[in-house]
Write a structure and sequence with these properties.
Blueprint (H helix, E strand, L loop, with lengths): L4 H34 L8 H20 L3 H11 L4 H8 L3 H19 L1
Length: 115
């Protein structure tokens, strides 16, 4: 069947979009199904390197946390869990400025690890 060029281009681009969506859907589902049914090692070919990278990141976090004081660690964990500085200060019975200074000190220590 012959159609005008502009309609042909529209049909062609529409088919490409559909094909790309289907390909994306298959890739996504295969990956997720691999995790659910076979375990994480079957979800991707790069799990060994992913695991190594995650371990290196965990080790780095442990190293950073080792340099923090107990108060700084506790406040960082609370802040990361979603509490505000005001909530942390209220729970600990200290001024908000004290919590803020602890977090600023942590950020300064983190700067040397970013380099």
């Amino acid at each position: 069947m012959e159609v005008e060029e502009k309609f042909g281009k529209y049909i062609e681009s529409s088919r490409k979009r559909e094909s790309n969506k289907a390909r994306h859907y298959r890739r996504k589902n295969i990956s997720l199904e691999g995790v659910v049914y076979e375990g994480r090692e079957f979800s991707s070919n790069d799990t060994y390197f992913d695991d190594m990278e995650e371990k290196a990141q965990r080790d780095r976090i442990k190293e950073i946390f080792a340099e923090l004081t107990e108060t700084q660690r506790r406040r960082c964990i609370q802040l990361a869990s979603g509490k505000s500085m005001q909530q942390i200060a209220k729970e600990e019975g200290v001024f908000v400025q004290s919590v803020h200074e602890s977090i600023v000190a942590v950020r300064k220590k983190l700067q040397k690890y970013r380099k």
